[in-house]
Amino acid sequence: MRSIRTAVFLLLMTGQFALAQTGYYFPKASKLDPAIPTPEKFLGYAIGTHYTRHDQIVAYFRELAKTSNRVHVQTIGKTYEEREQIVVTFTAPENYSRLEEIRKEHLTSIDPSKPVLDSKAPVVVMLGYSVHGNEGSCGEVSMLAGYYLAAAQDDEANQWLKEAVIFIDPSLNPDGRDRAANWFNSYKSFPAVADPLDKEHMEAWPNGRTNHYFADLNRDWLNLVHVESRNRVDFFHQWYPNVQIDFHEMGPNATYYFEPTPKRHESPIIPQFLYDENAVFAKYHAKALDEIGSLYFTKENFDNLSPIYGSTYPKFYGSLAATFEEAGSGGIVKETTNGPLTFSFTIRNHLATSFSSLKAAIAEKNNLFKIQKDLFKYGLEQAKANPAKAYIFGDSRDESLTQKFLGLLLQHRIQVYDVAATTSVEGKNFEKGKAYIVPAEQPNFLVIHSLFEEIALKDSLFYDNTGWSVIHAYGLQYAKIKTSGFTKGAPVTATVAAQGGIDGGKSSYAYLLSYTDYNAGKALYQLLSKNIMVKTAFKPFTAAIGNEKKSYGYGTLVVPVAGQSLSADSLYAQLQKVALTCQVRFTAASTGFSAAGVDLGSNNIKTVRKPEVALAFGQGITASEAGQVWFLLNQQLGMPVVKLDLQYFRQASLKKYTTIVLPAGNYNTWDKSVIDKLKAWVADGGTLITFQTATAWAIQNELVKEKLVESDEKVASTKNTERLEFVSKQDVEGSKRINGAIFQADIDITHPIAFGLNDRKLFINKNGPTLLQKSTDKYATVAQYTDKPFINGYASKQNISKVSNSAAIILSTISNGRVVLFADDPTYRSYWLGTTRLFFNSILFANLVEGGGIAGAEEENK
Questions:
Q1: Which residues make beta-bridge pairs with 573?
Q2: What torsion do the CA atoms of 50, 54, 56, 62 make, to the nearest 10 degrees?
Q3: Nearest alpha carbon to residue 87 among 258, 234, 243
Q4: Nearest to 398 by CA among 559, 533, 513
Q5: Are 157 and 362 in contact (CB under 8 A)?
Q6: Residue pair 65/72 in contact by the 8 Å Cβ criterion
Q7: How are beta strands 817-822 and 687-691 bridged, if at all?
Q8: Which residues, 6+ apart, have CB-to-CB distance to 716 below 8 Å?
């Protein structure tokens, strides 16, 4: 393999690579239609000598569709940056003429009661490239694979097209793809430079791996937070491919990886027969790579566990799904331990396994049809054996979050029903019309299990999240029904948008909004952005509304008519707009005299200031966390946020910001002058919010007087050091990490950070080592992990013990300012909504909290 890499490297250096393209990428091609333009002819450069932009890739496939009746392009959506998402269909013309008939026939595969597809039916294959935008070889491969499928005239290619419907998604992450392509193209040299330290190979923050909001789209298949994922999954459910391949790159000193993965990394709820088929396909991939002399490995690495991944989610629907990983050159050529690694070499390997996947799919077609059918039968069997016979969810106090979760279930094609009547399960009330029931016994039970159930894993070497139950992440009220005699209402096929408005019409006194709805924070910010004065209740009260009495809890929003900068009529009109946009309902109040609790003029009903937020950004910051904050403030609250690079904090005037957010990262580039500046800004009334390692940094640099739980990673003397086998190092050290598991905390629901919550039970995703001691201020520990906190995923007994009874959230008062310390990431992957609302509250309400109580309450006591 080293000699092959060296030969290609020399061709690149001499500029002769373009002349050798066809033979290099298609060594066995005998008949290629000259009327079909090669990528090189269309683009004007040889594949492997330049990174192709997404728009050029799309244009090439449209050109193929113009010149070949085997090729058809469809748009499935657009990204945040307005780039087109496409899927390209390759099949014989006679198949395409009845494509909808083929699709409907194929969909019988997901119905356990229908027979297995006949061997004459086409197998459906999806080849997905570049979900990580800077794994650049993948997008280039898509064009070469597309060209070959359009141009090849040999018997084998004709068989593929006759016996298969082949989909190519050339760029699952167009925005990240172009960010990376622009970097690599901007810094490439003539001739190419192989030194790994050359700027071409040192992609800058945040790099092109992620989408516009720095989200890893290969972790979003279950959560469906981002538009690219929703578009892609919607297409998946139109077809349920038999084979779905996810192409990636890994470190440059590796070789090539294809499945099977280690058994210890397999999902405990996916049947073994599905994983076994990967071993069958592996023989085809091994042969393809053997023929071109490329080294590879299997069965050693990579999670194959959770439906968050593009190579695992399809397994939950009976697809033979797999990850392929190629050593990445990160530029045109890079020196590695295996010799010069060229961009073209990485492309060729992925092209070889693209074709071996097609060969295997055709050869194993009948078995694939049976496997997919058996998967859904297996799901029904597991559902029948499952202790929970149904799951009921919904909260009449939080219709927005209820509908959001319902929408997620429907996107995954889960069968959902209305509750037949208002009922109580596990002591929780589920109101008819505002709650839903999900029977376990349905073909998609494996996905239902992933959304609702807890799994305690035994292995410690998963490299990513091990706790992904979305119902816990949302923090939405739910219960498990353990008996089979439950009653369900009508089937639900769409979400129901809450009708925003104002109950009671125009008021001359005030308007009230319960803060329990997830969209209440959005409504609050929208009002503040219109310069409308809004207050929030630090104590509950019962309002007299007409002839009725209505209870309002902590955080209730109060909009007085008096004191506003706009007229009563204009205020009413603006409230109506906000109510409709945010899908919430205000209530008109005619008096400030409460039937019980504090009155509307109480000092315990505090005026909320409009937040101006700056977010620490740039090199050193954990890009994913910064992106999550950016995304959630933009997309949920409609709030602009200033993205402030770490290097600019020195000269920036911080006075314009009410709130600064420090995601996890390395803040060691800040010297004493910057730290002192931040301390002074806090003392002057600013609110500082920190996540994970930023929390540890804030404590270590004495921005607050809180304390970390001491690490037990103390250096032991050689005499007392335990001697272990070298081969056990990965297992032993891996068990010390918390890669993402669900823990339970007790949260003070009277605290402003918890406004809107009705349950003291809080589920937190913990994926880092930061542990906080409880505050010495007995009112400052907002949330504390319980004595037995572990819920879901993997965590060692030692780590569970460390987390037990530690603080999860602390609000510390510093002079006139506040510091909100999160031990973890409350915005985790933008779908952990149960803690995201606490982050929003930190921005909106933290400044109103005094040490040991409520700002201004002491004045009322006088």
A1: none
A2: 140
A3: 234
A4: 513
A5: no
A6: yes
A7: parallel
A8: none
| Radius of gyration, CA atoms only, the chain | 29
Give the integer Cα–Cα distance in Å for 369 and 350.
Answer: 25
In tens, the pLDDT along 70-103 reads 999 999 999 999 999 999 999 999 999 999 999 9
Yes or no: say if 239 and 124 are a contact pair by the CB < 8 Å rule: yes
Q: How many residues does the chain have?
A: 862
DSSP string, 358-402: HHHHHHTHHHHHHHHHHHHHHHHHHHHHSS-SEEEE--TT-HHHH
Residue 290's alpha-carbon distances to 48, 138, 196, 247, 337, in angstroms, are 21, 20, 28, 19, 20
Task: Give pLDDT tens digits for 776-806.
Answer: 999 999 999 999 999 988 888 999 999 999 9
- Alpha-carbon distance of 329 to 184, in angstroms, equals 11
Interior CA angle at 101 toward 99 and 104, to 5°?
A: 110
Residue 511: phi and psi, rounded to 5, are -125, 145
The answer to whether the peptide bond before residue 191 is cis (omega within 30 degrees of 0) is: yes
| Secondary structure tally for the chain: helices H, strands E | 25, 36
CA neighbours closer than 13 Å in the CB half-sphere of residue 245: 34
Distances (CA, A) of 277 to 67, 231, 451, 531: 37, 28, 26, 61
Angstrom distance (rounded) from CA 92 to CA 52: 28
DSSP secondary-structure letter at 637? I
pLDDT band at 857 (very low <50, low <70, confident <90, very high): very low
Q: Are 694 and 664 in contact (CB under 8 A)?
A: yes
- The burial of 255, by beta-carbon neighbours within 10 Å (0-12 exposed, 13-18 middle, 19 or more buried), is given as middle
Single-letter code of the amino acid located at 619: Q
732 Cα distance to chain centroid: 29
Nearest-angstrom CA–CA distance, 451 and 436? 15
Q: E strands of 49-205, at which residues? A: 71-78, 84-90, 123-128, 164-169
In order of 234, 264, 548, the CA distances from 791 in angstroms are: 31, 20, 42
> Measured between alpha carbons, how far is 265 from 261 in angstroms, rounded to an integer?
7
Span 662-675, average pLDDT? 97
- Joined tokens for residue 463: 């490299």
Gap between the Cα atoms of 244 and 846, Å rounded: 47
Nearest to 132 by CA among 252, 255, 249: 249
**How far apart (Å, rounded) are the C-alpha atoms in residues 694 and 664?**
5
- pLDDT exceeds 70 at position 728: no
What is the CA 423 to chain-centroid distance, rounded? 33
Integer Cα distance of 109 and 370 in angstroms: 9
Dump the DSSP string for 741-775: EEEEEEE-TTSGGGTT---SEEEEEE-S---BPPP
For tokens 């349950």, the residue is 759
Which pair of tokens denotes residue 753?
Answer: 């950070």
Category of 712 on φ-ψ map: left (φ > 0), alpha (ψ -120 to 50) or beta:
alpha
Task: Tell me which residue of 598, 538, 501 sits closest to 755, measured CA to CA.
Answer: 538
Q: Per-residue DSSP letters for 559-616? A: EESTT-SS-HHHHHHHHHHHHHHHT-EEEEES-S--SEE--TTSTTEEEPPPP-EEEE
57, 139 contact by CB (below 8 A): yes
Identify the weakest region by mean pLDDT among 368-377, 449-458, 582-591, 693-702. 449-458
Distance CA 754, CA 724 (A): 46
Does residue 206 have a cis bond before it (omega within 30 degrees)?
yes
* DSSP class of 810: E
Look up residue 456 and give its DSSP letter: B
Q: Average of pLDDT values for 625-650?
A: 97
Count of beta carbons in the 10 Å neighbourhood of residue 280:
15
Rounded CA separation 21/476 (Å): 56
Rounded distance, CA 526 to CA 840, Å?
A: 13
